[in-house]
Write a structure and sequence with these properties.
The protein is mainly α. Helix content is 84%, strand content 0%. The chain is built from eight helices and no strands. α3 packs parallel to α6 and α4 runs antiparallel to α6. The longest helix is centred in the first third of the chain and has 29 residues.
């Protein structure tokens, strides 16, 4: 149970980082920074979400080759580094390509994290462990958007992206 609580804490930290980079905030950042329209944003998010779907299959393949924990860490770090490049992207095309690449890596830790959790928990405690970690993630996700919105309102459009990436990098190193 101690391992599960620690795992839930790490999941909450990751979710706080993710709360800084929700779809609406990314869309607003791209609109405000590059003046993209709704159609371009919609196409970008379709491509990004398609990459996420594909990444879940790739994560399973990769985990069989390098392990669950390595898959979580070795995909999370480059994903966060790609997120850090969005504020300095010179054009929407570059930002879109970086975002799509990032999305292709950003969720590979989801199926591997769940598999790892189920592997370290006895069968009779799996529902409790899963519930606790999901609760921790939900709590983490609800905190950050208020801070992200305040930063964007104050004119620091880049700050939520940097904060989210930094928190996610810290999570990957723990």
């Amino acid at each position: 149970r101690r391992q599960v609580r620690k795992f839930a804490g790490l999941s909450a930290l990751d979710a706080v980082g993710g709360g800084f980079i929700g779809s609406a905030l990314i869309a607003y950042f791209l609109y405000a920074r590059f003046g993209v329209n709704e159609t371009e944003l919609a196409l970008l998010f379709v491509a990004a979400r398609t990459m996420i779907v594909v990444s879940h299959f790739v994560a399973a393949w990769l985990a069989r080759r390098i392990g669950l924990v390595n898959t979580m860490v070795f995909t999370h770090i480059p994903s966060s580094l790609l997120l850090l490049t969005l504020p300095i992207a010179p054009s929407f095309g570059v930002a879109a390509a970086l975002f799509i690449l990032r999305e292709g890596l950003s969720e590979m830790d989801v199926p591997t994290r769940q598999s790892y959790l189920m592997a370290i928990v006895p069968p009779h405690e799996r529902a409790w462990a899963s519930g606790l970690t999901q609760l921790a993630r939900a709590a983490g996700r609800m905190i950050a958007p208020a801070f992200a919105g305040a930063a964007m309102h104050a004119g620091a459009l880049w700050l939520p992206l940097v904060a989210g990436a930094t928190i996610k990098l810290a999570y990957a190193h723990l």
